[in-house]
Amino acid sequence: MKKKLSDSLKAKKIIKIFSFLLIPFGFALPALLPYLIIIFLFVHIIFPPQKTKFIRLQASLPTSKARSVAMGLAEIEGKLVLHEPLMSPIDQKPCIGYRYEIQTVHREKGGKTHHHTISEKMECNHFSIEDETGRIKVIPEEMEWVWIPEENSVFDDEGKRHVQYLLKEGDKMLIVGNVTLNEQEPTITKHPLKKVFWNNSK
Amino acid sequence: MHFFSIIIFALLIIGTISFFITIFNRLVLLKNNIEKAFANIDVILKQRADEIPNLIKVVKEYVKYEQSVLEQLTKLRTDYTNSTNTSDKVKIANEMDKTIQKIMAVAENYPDLKANNSFVELQKRVSGLEDAIADRREFFNESVNLYNIGIQEFPNFVLAKMLGYAQKNMLYISEKEKKYDGIEF
User: Fold this and answer.
1) End-to-end distance of chain B based on CA atoms, in angstroms?
2) Among the four residues B32, B66, B120, B128, which has the most C-beta atoms within 10 Å?
3) β-strand partners of A105
4) CA distance between the termini of chain A
């Protein structure tokens, strides 16, 4: 008898707690908000977006000067110097490099539009970055572009959006990467361990 | 126990641990940046010290009456190379600075020396190294500044205090080091 009562009490307790947790589902989204915030924070901390990773690293690295940069992970700020030009895909302007995206456009009832990238192409030649002390070569293989502004966009007959992001001569940029000696010349490339190589216009 | 609440609890724990790992990693990066920056100043100072024998070799052929300055520079170079204490190295490097500047100033009185190609090349190299030293000192100070801010801002200061991270000092040029005694021969 005693055992049956305790089992029954246990069962009631479980049902009460479970019901309490299920209440938010009964009240739809606003009540689900705390749980969603927790899940969002968890995902953001474990898998931060590229821009967050860039901001964190950039905030911790002092900026080096081109003439005295040490080998290893470094941050350099300066103007871009063109070596060999490429032609931009939309308006055929000479540039150092470009990222070309084709996007579908979805318009919501409230007037907001969302763009979804369906195709992407990137091309970038070797270039240099120059500050007031000197110049350093950049080999842009596997370079990630962070906050590079759109240069131009057009719509095609099917309603798809074609957009280009350009790196042009004279653009002021901040590059985070690995400095090594390439043919006795300091060069910036992707860091082999930290896997960082960012180019940012902010 | 309830599956949903377990999931949420586990996410909270993992999220909190990851958050503190992120802060810890940042503090480690800031601290190591300072050590790297200081070691990189040492690299350039060593390069400059290595130029000194070449400088003396070229200069002494022309500047016969200032042997004591050349001897002083040779001694400083030896002391710098043999020193392992960081603050001693900094003091010796500052003395080397002043002595090299003396020699460069003296060269102005010896047109034959000024015209010597080897001397001109050495002058350019030493001047380039001086610029690099100045840049790296600035870089070191910026590293220290970022570190000091990093260990004081919220919420990093909680973990920094637990780990015993203390503020670091920047490189300052003392009044004595700034003082220029003129050319003494």
Assistant:
1) 89
2) B66
3) A115
4) 74
Asked if B40 lies within 8 A of A70 by C-beta distance, the reply is yes
Residue of B nearest to A47 (CA): B18
Chain B partners of A21 at a C-beta cutoff of 8 Å?
2, 4-5
Domain residues for the domain of B72 are 3-178
Q: Is the peptide bond before A62 cis (omega within 30 degrees of 0)?
A: no
What are the tokens at A199? 């180019």
Longest distance between any two alpha carbons in chain B, whole Å: 92
Whether residue B184 lies inside any domain: the answer is no
Contact B36 A41 (CB under 8 A): no
Running along chain B, 185 residues long, what does each successive block of 10 average in pLDDT? 74 82 91 90 86 80 72 86 79 82 79 79 84 89 93 91 88 56 39
Answer yes or no: is B17 within a domain: yes
pLDDT tens digits for range A82-124: 999 999 999 999 999 999 999 998 888 787 888 888 999 999 9
State ipTM. 0.70
